[in-house]
Write a structure and sequence with these properties.
Layout (H helix, E strand, L loop, with lengths): L3 E6 L7 H14 L3 E5 L13 E3 L2 H7 L16 H7 L2 H6 L2 E8 L1 H16 L5 E6 L17 H22 L2 E6 L6 H9 L4 E3 L11 H17 L5 E6 L1 H4 L3 H5 L20 H16 L5 E6 L1 H4 L5 H19 L5 E5 L5 E4 L1 H4 L17 H9 L9 H4 L11 H4 L3
Parallel strand pairs: 1-2, 1-4, 4-5, 5-10, 6-8, 6-9, 7-8
Antiparallel strand pairs: 2-3, 10-11
Helix pairs in contact: 1-2, 1-13, 6-7, 8-11
C-alpha cells in the first residue's frame, strides 16, 4: 500500500477551504501519495469507524473552486479522556499515514500539536502541517498577510452592503448592518470602507474609552444627524459584532434587550441577531431624542462564510496547498504554512506568534493609527464635529454629546 496523507477541516468555514484541500491533494497525488479526507474534523480520529474519503485527482479538481467545505467541518475538541480511551491509532497505522494536514484556526492548530505529541509517545510519529484560516483576519500573520477567506468574505459582504445602501437611498431609510468578527473589526471595516458607509463602528475605535451601548448608538446618531444637515435623509451603518462582546454584563442587562442566559449566568449572544439588537437600541435612542428615522437590521455573517472564493483567495490557497508539500519535503512538522507577500513559503510556529506568558495567540487588531483607517475616518465617514453644532441644534438639544471624537475621547 502507498504511503498516505490525511487531511481534515476544523472550526467554521471560510472561502478557499476546498482550494486548499484540492491543491494539497493534487500536489501529493503527483508525488505518489494517497490522500485521505476525513469528515467531521477531529472527531474522525476518535472514532473506530471514521467517515473518510479517498481524494483522487478528479475529485480534487472538481471541488477546487467551490465554496463551503467538501470535507464536513466540526468544532470537536478532544478531551484527555478521548485521547486515553478513543484515539484511533489503527487509522494511522493501517493507512500508512505520514502527514496530517489540518485546516482551521488556532484551536485546530493547538489540537494538531497535541495529536502529533500523542503519536510520538505511541512510537508512531506523524508530521503535522497546519493551514490557518479565518474570515475575521485576526490571526497575527507576519507582514500583514491576510488569513485566507477574508478577502472573499469582504468582497461578498461589500456586494451585500452596497445593495443595502442602494435600498436606503431608494427608500429613504437607514440600515444597521452587523458583521462577523468576535475580537477584531477587520471584516466590518473592510466592508464599510469598500461601500463608503457613513458610519463604521469596530471595537478598536474604543481605544481611549470604555465601550457602552450609549456610545455605540450615539456614533450612529451622529452620522444620521450629520447626513440630515447635508440634506441626505438616508444611510447605513455597519457595526462589528465584536463591540457587543466587549460590553460588560451590566451593560448588556441594561440594554433593554431580553436574552436567554447559560448555566453560568452569561447572556447567550450567539443565539441572537446582533443587527437586530443594534437596530432596536438605535430605535430606542431615536425615540428618546424625538428623531423620526426608520432603521432596518441586516446581518452579514453566515452569508459570506461559504461563498465562492474570489481570485485572490484561489491563488493564495493554491500557494498554501503547494506550500504544505514543500514544508513536508523539507522535514518540517508541527508548524503552520505561511506565504509571505513575495510568494515565498515559510514555516510559522505557534511559539512565534503566541503570547509567551499565556501561550495563547493574541488577535490581530485593526491598526487605528494607520493611514488606511485614518483616511476613511477623516474623509469617508459622516459625523458631527464642532463646526456642525449650530446646524445640529435643529435636531439635537446637546449636539456636543454626539461629536464623534468626543464620544471616543479622541
Amino acid at each position: 500500500m502507498k504511503e498516505a496523507i490525511a487531511i481534515l477541516t476544523g472550526g467554521g468555514p471560510a472561502p478557499g477551504m476546498n482550494a486548499v484541500v484540492g491543491t494539497v491533494a493534487k500536489t501529493f497525488i503527483r508525488k505518489g501519495y494517497r490522500v485521505i479526507g476525513l469528515h467531521g474534523g477531529y472527531s474522525g480520529l476518535f472514532d473506530p469507524s471514521p467517515r473518510m474519503v479517498e481524494i483522487d485527482f478528479e475529485l480534487a479538481d472538481d471541488i477546487f473552486s467551490r465554496g463551503g467545505s467538501y470535507l464536513q467541518m466540526s468544532r470537536f475538541k478532544p478531551s484527555q479522556k478521548d485521547f486515553d480511551d478513543n484515539f484511533n491509532l489503527h487509522f494511522f497505522k493501517e493507512n500508512k499515514v505520514r502527514l496530517l494536514v489540518t485546516v482551521g484556526g488556532d484551536d485546530t492548530a493547538s489540537t494538531a500539536n497535541r495529536i502529533a505529541s500523542f503519536l510520538e509517545e505511541k512510537k508512531h510519529p506523524v508530521a503535522n502541517i497546519h493551514v490557518p484560516k479565518t474570515i475575521d483576519n485576526d490571526l497575527p500573520l507576519p507582514m500583514g498577510m491576510p488569513t485566507f477567506g477574508y478577502q472573499s468574505a469582504k468582497d461578498k459582504g461589500a456586494v451585500l452592503a452596497r445593495t443595502v445602501y442602494n435600498d436606503a437611498r431608494t427608500s429613504g431609510n437607514w440600515f444597521v448592518l452587523s458583521a462577523m468578527g468576535r475580537s477584531a473589526g477587520h471584516l466590518a471595516f473592510g466592508i464599510g470602507a469598500a461601500s463608503h458607509y457613513p458610519m463604521i463602528v469596530i471595537p478598536e475605535m474604543f481605544n481611549r474609552t470604555t465601550i457602552t451601548v450609549r456610545k455605540i448608538v450615539d456614533l450612529v446618531v451622529s452620522a444620521i444627524v450629520k447626513r440630515k444637515i447635508m440634506g441626505m435623509d438616508y444611510g447605513a451603518a455597519i457595526i462589528s459584532e465584536g463591540v457587543f462582546h466587549e460590553l460588560s454584563n451590566e451593560e448588556i442587562k441594561n440594554s433593554g434587550i431580553v436574552f436567554s442566559y447559560d448555566e453560568h449566568g452569561h447572556p447567550e449572544l450567539g443565539k441572537v441577531s446582533k443587527a437586530h439588537i443594534f437596530s432596536e437600541m438605535l430605535d430606542n435612542r431615536l425615540r428618546e431624542l424625538g428623531l423620526k428615522v426608520k432603521s432596518r437590521p441586516v446581518e452579514v455573517g453566515y452569508e459570506v462564510r461559504c461563498q465562492t472564493p474570489v481570485a485572490y483567495d484561489l491563488v493564495y490557497c493554491t500557494q498554501l496547498g503547494m506550500g504544505v508539500h514543500k514544508l513536508f519535503a523539507q522535514g518540517n512538522s508541527r508548524c503552520m504554512v505561511y506565504v509571505d507577500p513575495e510568494g515565498s513559503v515559510l514555516p510559522l510556529y505557534l511559539k512565534d506568534i503566541e503570547d509567551p506568558a499565556t501561550h495563547k495567540i493574541p488577535p490581530r487588531m485593526v491598526d487605528m493609527a494607520g493611514d488606511k483607517v485614518q483616511g476613511v475616518v477623516d474623509n469617508i465617514l459622516n459625523y458631527i464635529t464642532p463646526a456642525d453644532y449650530e446646524a445640529a441644534r435643529a435636531y439635537l438639544a446637546n449636539p456636543e454629546e454626539f461629536d464623534f471624537r468626543k464620544i471616543l475621547n479622541w
